[in-house]
Amino acid sequence: MTTYEAIIGMEVHIELQTESKMFCSCSADAFSAAPNTNVCPVCLGLPGALPVINERAVAFTIMTGQALGCEIHAHNVFARKNYFYPDLPKGYQISQYELPLCTAGKLEISANGNRKTVGITRVHLEEDTGKLTHVEGGSLVDLNRAGVPLMEIVSEPDIRTAEEAYAYVTQLRQIVRYLGVSSGDMEKGAMRCEVNLSLKPVDSDVWGTKVEVKNLNSFRAVRNAIAYEIERQTRVLESGGQVEQVTMGWDENRGRTVVQRTKEDAHDYRYFPEPDLPPLELDPAWIAELESSLPELPAAKTERYISEWGLAAQDAAALAENRARAEYFESVVAAGTKKVSPRAVANWMVGEVFRLLNESGIEVDAIKFTPADFVRLIELVETDAINRLAAKDVLADMWQSGEKPDAIVEKRGLKQISDAGALDAIISQVIAENGDAVAQFKAGKEKILGFLVGQVMRHSRGKANPKMAEKLLREKLTE
Ligand SMILES: [Zn+2]
Asked: From ligand 1's centre to the CA of 149, what distance in Å?
């Protein structure tokens, strides 16, 4: 039986987070305003209205291209893409065709533990369409979104599996969020994916018929639609049939792809250079300036955390995932220079702070205590002034009150008992009360010691130094 492999290319549309639209001064916030309020003659496509290019949208597209290692073209041209649809007021979309802003880049992805490079064919700039809502008896159109800057990223057909596609889109989103060029919010339609997929026998170079799956609005949909199509096309080929060239959509509820258009009514967009806009000639110095303003990207951060600070790969990746969190982490490391290690900061961040962030639904900019206070808390643990358990309480208190860790330790009497004399009485009491456990330990059941340490912790109301308690217990029980 023939084994097939999938050849997958992706087209990802990303709405840019600019103040105004692509070619007019209307607000580009298409989500929160009442329908059809952010509109003007330009984005409504009224006769005689002329477009003006949004400089920031161009900058954002170039930055994305640079982050993806693309070649940036100082000379580029906007083109008219002609088609009729009720959400497109002008009857054409201004896009880029033959001469896009960025070409020939790459994105390194990591899927199922394997790394691979996905080629980026092009990154170009265009305008979004309006939004149709289908209701009983007809359809409603909202043109607030018409003219919102839209960046399209087209990949080479280098992706082979649903997991790789998933990794590709998640990493793209991470990059646009890092750059601050888009919210990347799929639920709000700020990022939309299309997949081109065909199968070929593993031992052949002949690709099968290409099927397009459009409007994938979640990462899960990307993964599920690809897995479904690979299975469906394999079934067709194995039963001796032929895959038809179609455009499909993804039916989330039924978990299957559905045909939207067949080859016969494929579009001819009749592209030609946009006559209302001159070719865009960019100053190479400006392009260089944009490049030097790029932040350190997540892959580079992860690498640096591992090589310079000795973090575990998983922690490094978790810390680098979100730019604000990564920068916060780095500010704590900087505040802790010569006091606490980056590894210790990383442990507290990934463990406790991430949990508190997730539970409270706030982000790092709303944390009430300073990086220096965070460092002080870690110092208190590392110098055995308080134990880990108490430190978690102190952190939770700092989180709520913003108070200094030393003040909280004092107020709540959490100072660790590391004094052998003070622990001695508690340990004698625990030994007296737990004859059974003591006998088991003496009979060689090493594990029971943990239980006895727990009892010491309980009697000291969590304040005993557990390492010291264990040491003293062992001494007493073996003397
Ligand atoms: Zn407008």
From this structure: 12
Which of 289, 308, 343 corresponds to the end of one domain? Answer: 289
The count of domains in the chain is: 3
Which residues on adjacent β-strands are paired with residue 135?
Answer: 138
Residues 274 and 130 in one domain: yes
Residues 160 and 30 in one domain: yes
Q: Based on the fold, state whether residues 77 and 209 are members of the same structural domain.
A: yes
Q: What is the pLDDT of residue 382?
A: 85
Q: What is the CA radius of gyration of the chain?
A: 30
Same domain? For 46 and 174 the reply is yes
- Indicate if 223 and 314 belong to the same structural domain: no
Distance 82 CA to ligand 1 centre (A): 20
Per-residue pLDDT tens digits for 176-208: 999 999 999 988 889 999 999 998 888 888 887
Nearest to 214 by CA among 188, 196, 232, 236: 196
Burial (CB count within 10 angstroms: exposed 0-12, middle 13-18, buried 19+), residue 407: middle
Question: Structural domain of residue 443, as residue ranges?
Answer: 420-478
Residue 405, pLDDT > 80, answer yes
Do 256 and 304 lie in one domain? The reply is no
CA of 268 to the centre of ligand 1 (A): 27
If pLDDT is split at 50, 70 and 90, which confidence band does 445 have?
confident
- Expressed in angstroms and rounded, the spacing between residue 275 Cα and the centre of ligand 1 is 19
141 & 44 share domain? yes
Side chain identity, residue 221: A
pLDDT at 17: 95
Give the C-alpha separation, 11 to 123, whole Å: 10
pLDDT of residue 254: 83
Q: What is the largest CA-CA distance in the chain?
A: 98
**CATH code where residue 426 lies:** 1.10.10.410
Domain closes at, from 245, 274, 289: 289
Asked if 97 and 81 count as a contact pair (C-beta separation under 8 A), the reply is yes
Arithmetic mean of pLDDT over the chain: 89
Contact assessment for residue 394 and residue 388, using Cβ atoms and an 8 Å cutoff: no
Tokens describing residue 215: 């409007």
The length of the chain is: 479
Ligand 1 centre from 39 Cα, in Å? 4
CA distance 252 to 217: 10
Q: What letter does residue 365 receive in the DSSP assignment? A: G
Main-chain phi, psi angles of 57, to 5 degrees: -65, -40
Yes or no: say if 340 and 375 are a contact pair by the CB < 8 Å rule: yes
Most confident listed range (33-47, 249-263, 385-399): 33-47
* 181 CA to centre of ligand 1 in angstroms: 20
Structure-token match 């990223």, residue found: 153
pLDDT score of 61:
97
pTM, to two decimals = 0.81
Q: Residue 352 has what DSSP assignment?
A: I
Centroid of ligand 1 to alpha carbon of 14 (angstroms): 19
